[in-house]
Amino acid sequence: MHHWPLALPLAALALLGLALGFGPAGPLLLTVCAAALIGAVIAAVHHAEVVAHRVGEPFGTLVLAVAVTVIEVALIVSMMLAGGPDTATLPRDTIFAAVMIIGTGVVGLCVLVGGLHHHEQSFQLDGATSSLAALVVLAGLSLVLPSFTTSSPGGTYTLSQLAFAGVSSLVLWAIFVFVQTVRHRDYFLPPTRQHDEHAHAAPPSTAAAWASFGLLLVALVSVVGLAKQLSPTLEGLVASAGAPKAVIGIAIAMLVLLPETWAAVRAARADRLQTSMNLALGSALASIGLTIPAVVAAAWWLELPLVLGLAPKDLVLLLLTFVVSGMTLGTGRTTVMQGAVHLVLFAAFLFLALVP
User: Fold this and answer.
1) Which domain holds residue 320?
2) Spatial separation of the C-alpha atoms in residues 97 and 91, rounded to whole Å
3) Which label site among 37, 132, 181, 216 has the fewest CB atoms less than 10 Å from its CB?
4) Of 3, 24, 5, nearest to 236 (Cα)?
5) CB crowding 92-124: b at 16 or more within 10 Å, else e
6) Is residue 32 part of a domain?
7) How far apart are CA 142 and CA 91, in angstroms?
8) Do 304 and 90 form a contact (C-beta atoms < 8 A)?
9) pLDDT tens for residues 249-260?
10) How high is the pLDDT of residue 65?
């Protein structure tokens, strides 16, 4: 029996409590926190896989995607509460970074790794295209249209427009989850189970699955908390390098998305690209469908400004991402070529964030 899946999340949580108790962390504590964050990511992926093996696809990937997103939403709202009007663009920057990281970086890495190990991989076309269609609409309502509406200037929505965007996002995400888990669950199952290493293994007991679910939450809380602890150091490095402030949001989003990225790449390497797609697209959908209603409610309640519309450069990057994703997901089969295309677009996103 391995003890590290239990020890790593608890150790990470203890270090988070230590960092919070001591206030500003020194170099040694920051280094230990960074190591604990990596350990918590490894543990989170392990426990997510245990839960996924117990409940089956696509419920398992949904558990990890929703758990990470709920904690990420809590982090964004808490930063809005602390930062006030200065955080008007924080939800937009975080959502955009998450969509770009997932849609170009995570998808590209999964397809490339899977292609290198298995030459060609397949996934369910019906599930992927319906996920992408929902993502395009959610991103359009939340990040694109505010730049073009005329009732409110500067990439903002009026109160009624915010309410419509928030309710629409939540309803569309809920319908997607219903389709994914109930109505058309078969659209999100692997085309073949012959390469699934879990297919012939006995599932864990109910008690073990619940224990892993609890430890998964502990690990994810630790990941987000430690990422927040490391963010002042990231801000200092960004400021000293003279890089744009948006880089901070990208760095934090990449840290928070580490568990899903690791799990998705592991699945692609094991020739389970369908699981990778479920994780990636499900995470992107949840990052908008849950975040927008939460930040709209927070902005309305606290009377805070909320800027959602993207700048022209970011609009072009988002459009390119959706066009390329439509081509990649339009055949149901992938090779290293599609992975390379996504990763080049991801590199362009990172480069233009540094050199706008």
Assistant:
1) 61-201+231-354
2) 10
3) 181
4) 24
5) bbbbbbbbbbbbbbbbbbbbbbbbeebeebbbb
6) no
7) 10
8) no
9) 787 778 778 878
10) 73
For residue 42 the two structure tokens come to 């490894």
Distance CA 167, CA 73 (A): 16
Residue 147, in any domain of the structure: yes
Cβ proximity of 272 and 196 under 8 Å: yes
**Alpha carbon distance 333, 141 (integer Å):** 29
pTM of the model: 0.82
Give a yes or no: residue 125 inside a domain. Answer: yes
Q: How many CA atoms lie within 13 A of 218 on its CB side?
A: 23
Q: Which CA distances in Å does 293 have to 62, 80, 159, 173, 296?
A: 19, 14, 13, 11, 5
Secondary structure class of 124 (helix, strand, coil): coil
What is the number of alpha carbons within 13 Å of residue 140 lying toward its C-beta? 9
The terminus-to-terminus CA distance of the chain in angstroms comes to 51
Parts of the chain with a pLDDT under 70:
1-2, 23-25, 57-58, 60-61, 82-84, 192-202, 235
Number of domains present in the structure of the chain = 1
Where residue 314 sits, what CATH number does that domain have?
Answer: 1.20.1420.30
Distance CA 230, CA 225 (A): 9
Encode burial over 212-239: b for 16+ CB neighbours within 10 A, e otherwise.
bbebbbbbbbbbbbbbbbbbeebeeebe
Determine the pLDDT at residue 337.
94
In a domain, 288, yes or no: yes
**202 bridge partner residues:** none
Q: Which pair of structure tokens corresponds to residue 313? A: 């450069």
Tokens of 119: 């030459």
